[in-house]
Amino acid sequence: MPTRNILIILGHPDADSFCGAMADAYLQSALAAGHSARLFRLGEMTFDPVLRHGYRQRQELEPCLLEIREAISAAQHLVFVYPIWWGGPPALLKGLFDRVFLPGYAFRYRQGSQFWDRLLSGRSAHALVSMDTPPWYFRLVYRMPGHNQMKRTILEFCGIKPVKISSFGPLRFSTQQQRERWLDQVRAFARKA
Fold it and tell me: Which residues form the Flavodoxin-like fold domain (predicted)?
């Protein structure tokens, strides 16, 4: 199996969370499988997650965001690890997308057209998502708003395909044994990346 350059982004602000355990398990298994892998923990980074002027005025990227942008450019496979809060990803992860996935880097609108160029094509992605809602309920009742946002309106919009999403939950009622099984799944995903 060919090795890949993998970028892992932990979108949970708390690195000691179950999401942090998933990100660490993925990193260790990817490295053990011979992949090149790097992990960014957003909760340990200092950046303004607010795009202050929209696309009207340029907002300089902090050094850590420049580093993430370079890592995204070099990666073949992106892994996002985060919880579902209020139906979507945490504000910190959304702030990363708002600040880094900018016109001219992640996409470009065509002159005089409603269409756009997807500038991050050639990469795949996998989102590892924890939730307290049972995944079947999130899918059937809520219709997966956070999953649709991540897959369709962020990653695929910028050309990243295929995008796979794996849900783990309900976390709140899970046992240590269940969490270990989920971590084993994450390790298997990393080996097959």
Answer: 5-183
